[in-house]
Amino acid sequence: MQLKITVLSVFLYIGVSAQNIQNNPGSNHGNRFEQLGTTLPTPNVYRTASGAPGQAYWQNRADYDITAYLDEDKRNLKGSETVTYHNNSPDDLDYIWLQLDENQQSTVKKADYQFSSTLPKSLNDQQLKTTDLPAKDNGYGVNLEKVTDASGNPLKYTVNKTMMRIDLPKVLKKGEKFIFKIDWNYNIPNRMKMGGRGGYENFAEDGNDLYTITQWFPRMCVYSDFQGWQNHQFTGRGEFALVFGNYKVSMNVPADHVIGGTGECKNYEQVLTPEQLSRYKKSQTSNEPVEIVTLEEAKKAEKNHSKQRKTWVFEAKDVRDFAWTASRKFVWDAMGVTIPENNNKVMAMSFYPKEAYGLYRKFSTKAVAHTIKTYSEFTIPYPYPVAQSVEASNGMEYPMICFNFGRTEKDGTYSEGTKNGMIGVIIHEVGHNFFPMIINSDERQWSWMDEGLNTFTEYLTEEKWDNKFPSKRGPAWTIVDYMKLPKDQLEPIMSNSENIIQFGPNAYAKPATGLNILRETIMGRDLFDKAFKTYSKRWAFKHPEPADFFRTMEDASGEDLDWFWRGWFYGTDPVDIAIDKVTIATPDLTAVKQAEETKYKVEKPLQNEFEDISKIRNKENKTITFEVEKDKDLQDFYYRYDRGQEKVNSDKEYSIKTESSESLDKKDQDKFKNITAYQIDFVNKGGLVMPIILEFTFEDGSKLKDKSSAQIWRHNENKASKTFYFDKKLKFVQLDPMRETADIDTSNNFWSNDQAGSETSKFQVFKEKQKATVRGGANGKVNPMQAAGKKN
Questions:
Q1: pTM reported for the whole predicted model
Q2: ∠ at Cα 640 (635, 643), nearest 5°?
Q3: Which Pfam family name is an example for this entry (predicted)?
Q4: How many Å apart are CA 426 and CA 405, to the nearest integer?
Q5: What is the pLDDT of residue 640?
């Protein structure tokens, strides 16, 4: 549509108006820009309106002294614990609650949160064994032997599935502590068959077990200012709400077993050989991983099952949990790491069977070190003395220790996918030391507060490991398929952990993506990073809730983000902004009174492949040196192949200079005779408001970018318009060119000035290339060497 308009002032860069269409003001509001208000809990003396802990903030504490005996023949774990529980709350307590997580493995003691079931196509033995009505006791779950006070007097207690209430002999008042003892045992489950986070894995070829001892002792529930007792049943899905404390743990195991655990071992001199102790001391100052227990020693130990016993003693301070691992199969390597922000000396260590040696020996400990250093930059300095990765064919996290996968084929080869998956899961699980092991959110209620925040920081860490790392969660474009799902298959991020259907996208990917959009597109890196570090600092070693996070991010940045929390976290609407119409007008220059001088930058477009906004900014940031570039040992054939033919072209800067004058004479009118005005109308088809990001391409090949904040939708959440004035002809416009808003339909993100004809326009060819890029993946290409599968 071509019009003639009168223009009072002309800007060569961007138009003077960014107007909203308001056909019927007030009738189109979906409340997207209203404050969260009473949706969030009322601030109080415990939690402030700024998102910080209040002046009367408190939390209770539990200290543990535990002895454990691992019976390998019976696959039974026997334990005795003394718990000192500190009541720092203002409340009088007449009972306390503990968690008996191992009861989830029992057929008769579990929480029994059932799912609907249908007839399977075929039945296996395990399914047939669980068809008894009523269910028969499978022999798993916690067996309580004795529950007494510090003097040995029996205590009254009640077990409700996975929860245990102890009735106190007298009221526990503020500032008092209660000491009690529990003796217990349980049969260790085969986690490879029964599932779950803890148990044993049997290696039939050599007749050995690898034990991951987790959720293994009766643990105190959280009593808090915002909920009281968090005693929701453990179903296997929602993870844990735990209190901080100090631990002393003694583990009696077969003498040929190697143990890794939360905290520091206090008796290496008694449990290691002189040669192993010497290697450990050497590793403390080494910049490369040193094998403390060598591959040869591990292979030798596999052949002989010692009947002797050894006791390993570990201590950990200010942790919320304790986990450990034991096996005679373990190779163990370590190296020292210094955290620059607090000069903390940390031992980065890995434990792995020979089946994982080809991958873990090269990558694991270095990935551990890289993770704690990078997370320390974005959150708080890592405070603990140890960080460990254990190859156990799964992924799960605990303070200072985590369990991950990463085994090679029998011939020692591995695929590129296995390598990247292993590095990603190590980063993720080690990263959980920060969320929730230190910034101690309630996982039983809000999975996203640990999984989502951790997945986001994992993405930042993967980027600093390798700028080409194929991250699956974090970039906006990776969440599109999930956001396209029908509404009845979606639920808000703000959903209870037990009720989430699409758990991976909802608890991990969507919150991580939302934070990345905040950082890259809405707030900017400087504001976001400051606010994110503020949240981490405020709530380190405390119990944050969602409102504390939302409020802190706004308080520390000066950004009103309620519209974003409302849409991305409380809603299920997707982003789908469309270019509805472009109106072209030629200005009447006889009415022009003034011109202004402007400059602008035209960025050279990306060619041939798609890279998300984070990768580009990190690549341009000269202060970042990617971990894989610093260490030649981390580079393999795939790395060199991918980069061998690639060259990075620098962007060029362009500018236009015009003279200013009080009024335009005939000469000036000639100068601006090529001015064209464009009104672009947008429609919010998806419902979720987002910034409007445009890239203009002109007929001379130059480009220009413009971004309007999401506030452009505040008066009309359905429609918006922007007007621009250019001194050259516009060829086409692309909305969200870097796919940074998770727009689910990019087919309506283009407008072209090409005339319709029988031939396919250049712009149509461009769109077809874009579609091919989406079909082909992040860069539109398939690496032929990756398709080959393995790497030697």
A1: 0.86
A2: 125
A3: Peptidase_M1
A4: 8
A5: 63
